[in-house]
Amino acid sequence: AAAAAAAGEEARAREAAQAELKIQELNEKLNQSHQDMEKQATQMAKMRDLLRKYKATMNKQKAGLAGATPEKAPAAAPAATPEKAPASAALAPAAAAPAAPTAPGGGGG
């Protein structure tokens, strides 16, 4: 009976040790995922900050263009045009590209 009790004790001790290891593993995984989440949150915060700054800059530019007096307008227009031209040129093909496949697709259907 004593041997059986000792064997049972050993089995319980092994199970407890395995459970401890499993708990440690899970804790490590949890800590790692927390660190990953914190990194992602930091990156997202940086992106939000950049977006906020970009929007503020764009609003200032819009306000500057809208608030330009007639005397200033000719001076402001040439300065703004080179910046806008490449953007418009880049957007035009992009806008045309989705439209082109749609038309033949619609005609075929």
List the topology elements:
Layout: H1 2-66, H2 72-108
Structure overview:
Residues 9-47 form a coiled coil. Keywords: Coiled coil. Residues 61-109 are annotated as: Disordered. Residues 65-103 have a biased composition (Low complexity). The chain has 109 residues and is an all-alpha fold. The chain has one domain (2-93). It is 94% helix and 0% strand. It contains two helices and no strands. The protein has helices at 2-66, 72-108. It starts with a helix and ends with a helix.
Relevant terms:
single chain, 109 residues, mainly alpha, 2 helices, 94% helix, rod-shaped, disordered C terminus
Unreliable segments of 5+ consecutive residues: 79-83, 85-109
* C-alpha Rg (nearest Å): 33 Å
Class derived from helix and strand content: mainly alpha
Secondary-structure element pattern, one letter each: HH
Task: Report the major sheet.
Answer: none
Keywords: Coiled coil
Coiled coil: 9-47
Region (Disordered): 61-109
Biased composition (Low complexity): 65-103
